Amino acid sequence: MATQKVEAPLEAEETPETVVVRFAGDSGDGMQLTGGQFTLSTALAGNDLATFPDFPAEIRAPQGTLFGVSAFQINFGSRAINTAGDAPDVLVAMNPAALKVNLPALKPGGLVIADTGEFSKRNLDKAKYDVNPLEDDSLAKFDVLAFDISAQTIEAVKPFGLGNKDALRCKNMWTLGLALWMFDRPREPIHQWLKAKFKSKPDIADANIAALDAGHAYGETAEISGPLKQLHMPPVPSAPGLYRTVTGAEAVSLGLVAGAQLAELPMFFGGYPITPASAILHHLVRLKEFGVTTFQAEDEIAAICAAIGASYAGSLGITSSSGPGIALKGEAMGLAIMTELPLVIVNSQRGGPSTGLPTKTEQSDLYQAVYGRNGDAPMPVIAARSPSDAFEVAIEACRIAVEYMTPVMLLTDGYIANAAEPWKVPDPKGFTPFPAKFLEQKNDGDNLLPYKRDAKGARPWIKPGTPELMHRIGGIEKHELTGNIDYSPANHQAMTDARKAKIDRIAVPDQDVALGDTSGKLAVVGWGSTYGPIHQAVRRSREKGLDVSHIHVRHIWPLPGNLGDLLRGFDHVLVPEMNTGQFKTVLRDQFLVDAQPLTKTSGQPFQIAELEAAIASYFDGQPGDAGGEEVDANDQQLPSPKAVNP
Amino acid sequence: MNEMTSPKDMVTTTLKDWETDQEVRWCPGCGDYAILKAVQRTLPQLGADPAKTVFISGIGCSSRFPYYIESYGFHTIHGRAPAFATGAKLANPELDIWLVTGDGDGLSIGGNHLMHVLRRNVNMQIMLFNNEIYGLTKGQYSPTSREGTRSPSTPLGSVDHPARPAAFALGAGARFVARGFDVSKKLPEVLMAAHAHQGAAFIEIFQNCIVYNKDVFDDFAAPKGAEDRQLWLENGEPMLFAGGRQGLTLDRDELCLKVVEVADGDWEAAGVIVHDVTNRIIAHMLVEMPFGPFPMALGVLYDDLRPTFESGVIEERERATTGKTADLVKLLGSGQTWTVSGTAADPV
Questions:
Q1: Do A288 and B70 touch (CB under 8 A)?
Q2: What are the protein's GO molecular function terms (chain A) (predicted)?
């Protein structure tokens, strides 16, 4: 690939294996765009990476305020990465508020790049700084590179005759240019992207390109020897093949499309706008050629009801939402359970309760997913652990829904939905098809028995339009074979048992151990997006000689059959979760194991160091018990786990 | 002619073919029995195919309806039937969908969905059984109950103003609005007109709840002696009632309808207006017309075609997929990609 090397990269021993960079600015500064393009250039450079977009719930919060700060963190390196990193090495702060909000996260000795052009009295006031932090000694423990990025940008785009406001909008590209230089990245792909993005406004494209090049040149001219150095990260040795970056929302969408194809069904997606789930609707609406029909309903309830109506008529019905929307869908889920129709419900969890933290991440809908319906309403629940894992999990959700005639809930979260990572593009042929079967003729001699079950406990799927198979279904308890209304005591007992048995018997793969031994002193059990930090914390602890294993559960309900025995093989079970201990409760209830919670509900993912400290507390007096303090927070690599690059 | 029953698809059935083996569980004497019979009488006349006919309902007395029709049926949840029906219709536009709802199901808990299915104009027949009461939950007042209705939840009489189903439908953008009542011999005719309309066809059917709200419609729907208070609308015909002795005229100064006496059948001289089913303004006046000073407007009040939702969805899909193939391998490998061979990464 074409690279522009201005000077020899630093000596190998000075090049860290991973770097964490956080771009922070006002929500109008285009930080997510900057981060996204930097991610792409990082992926093209062959580095592994993980990202964490962190943005406010407001679309355009008042400029310069603390609550209007938008940030994008990327962890990348020449070894496998599976978290967005704990503490940034580099913080790009586009204004005082961005500095104030993000500085506490910066690693001691880290580099601050600040735009002095934005450190006006007015902006300092808005960020509640009495004194300009760039001018006192409050940043003494960091390297600081402060200069007027705004002025540099205006100068760079002068030839294009933009107004001051439009010119300043190119600041993010100037900054990206500097970042590209710092990490020895080619500019060409970004040039191409800008040309495509502003196809109808070539002036704007040219101005942005000029800003990008100027930022890059600024690094090159090396007037600033000081803290600014160019780093060249060698590519990660990855399995040969085709790669792309993927966010969780994209991976879920692609997985659902693949799942519907494997089921040989048209897909019907009913959705209602909600953060952070809307991205799935946005992706699927563009995939009509795959037999996808999308429907933006009048509310969350209509979205799921329309999906169930479509499943009833022979499509694979899918709906997606986030916590509050999922709550609204609860009654309809009960109907899908009662009428035993396939349905996939994607829940991109966010901080709750109520509206909670729409743009922040949490895992606090597990109770809602497993238990949150009226009546005995068993429903399979599976959880994705990373953006790329979401692809496989979405296929698995479709499989269970179609094979067992049941709604299935797929849990992701705001972190997975928005975060990006490199993904080795899978071959669809690697997945076993599970074609849906529709009943075409009467299944009991001259009679139709709509609730006669197969070996899996599933009833037949009967499409309206099929001659001779007219029948009625509904939410009222029904006879265990005919489906006619039947409130009789023995029948309700039998149907409750049958609905439970069907879900209990779902073929769930045995639980494996993600890292470590299958028995020992401590098992750290996670689910969902905590995979990355748990994995790294366990790896580091094991390197220090601690007897700890990482178990990561995909199938939340029903749980893998061997999980109880597996957990009983450990002296201690620690369950880190971004909630107040929900999966812990399920494990205790199902297996009578003394699962201990480690909880966090700050809206931010776990840091590796805090998990390491929790692990260390189980090993008092043993070498390595000091936990996170001993280890550099960014030393966190291991061979790429299978699930990240299936 | 409805799109799913072009002549070649007409199926010959009798009333008996549309009866199920299910025991009907409505109270003896309930108006629902008469509506059920009217529907079972209508379906053979339409040439409807039981295998392609789907009755979808919400919750309430009316919503038990699908169990008693020998077709496909889906008894869903309270108020949401329009959403299920929309999904089913989009998944298979060939299905002939009849929605069954009531005043509580359709206008209270499900008002939102009813509004949107009408606005979107999803092709189906929507029968709203209006008995002005919650029957299945034992007699509470409903959104269509008249002011002062005494019920277990309003022992001193209700104070809220009732919703008017036909006015609601028209306001929501319905392109077909009709009225009938349970024991009316003309109900099948109204249902046939609704079926012939391509789009969401809304039919308010006054239904006598003999247990909780007995005979509230007797002033115009009593088996005998109420005919004079019924205005049966016919497209292209003068708006006459009371055996042609009275009619409706348009007061062009006040912009309102007025009742006029017709002498010797000379309705033109009396200024009686002719019903035009496509006249939306007059339709608004007809659905707002207070019963008492005016007769009850029945039959097809409004009928004016507009493209259906599902046809729009299908057209858009065809446009968007022209020249595209469903290549999953290509889709997964789309976006900005790179290949890894050995240790070098190359943009693709």
A1: no
A2: oxidoreductase activity, acting on the aldehyde or oxo group of donors
CA angle A546, A551, A555 (to 5 degrees): 170
Q: Contact B87/A290, CB-based, under 8 Å? A: no
Domain assignment present for A587 = yes
pLDDT of the residue at A352: 94
Q: CA distances (Å), A264 to each of A267, A315, A398, A399, B251, in order?
A: 9, 10, 11, 11, 62
Q: For the domain B3-235+279-286+294-311, what is the CATH superfamily, name and number?
A: Thiamin diphosphate (ThDP)-binding fold, Pyr/PP domains (3.40.50.970)
* Residue of chain B minimizing CA distance to A258: B328
> Does residue A280 sit in the same domain as residue A211?
no
Tell the burial category of A163 from Cβ atoms under 10 Å away from its Cβ (0-12, 13-18, 19+). Answer: exposed
Q: What phi and psi, each to the nearest 5 degrees, are found at residue A259?
A: -60, -45
Residue A335 counted as domain residue: yes
Residue B71 with chain A: CB contacts under 8 Å: 470
Range of the domain at A550: 513-617
CATH number, domain with residue A331 = 3.40.50.970
Flag residues of chain B having pLDDT under 70. Answer: 1-7, 342-348
Q: Report the DSSP beta bridge partners of residue A551.
A: A525
Sorted by where each begins, the domain ranges of chain B are 3-235+279-286+294-311, 238-274
Say if A455 falls within a structural domain. Answer: no
pLDDT reported for residue A626: 54
CA distance B72 to B69: 8
- State the SS3 of A57-95: CCCCCCCCCHHHEEEEEEEEECCCCCCCCCCCCEEEECC
Spatial contact of B341 and A241, defined as CB atoms under 8 Å apart = no
Percentage of chain A modeled with pLDDT above 90? 76
- With b for 16 or more beta-carbon neighbours within 10 A and e for fewer, the B185-218 pattern comes to eebbbbbebbbbbbbbbbbbbbbbbbbbbeebbe
**Same domain (yes/no): A281, A410:** yes
How many helices (DSSP H) and strands (DSSP E) are in chain A?
A: 20, 20
Min Cα distance B171 → chain A (Å) is 17
ipTM (interface pTM): 0.96
With respect to residue A623, please indicate whether it lies within any of the assigned structural domains. Answer: no
Count the neighbouring beta carbons within 10 Å of the beta carbon of residue B64. 24
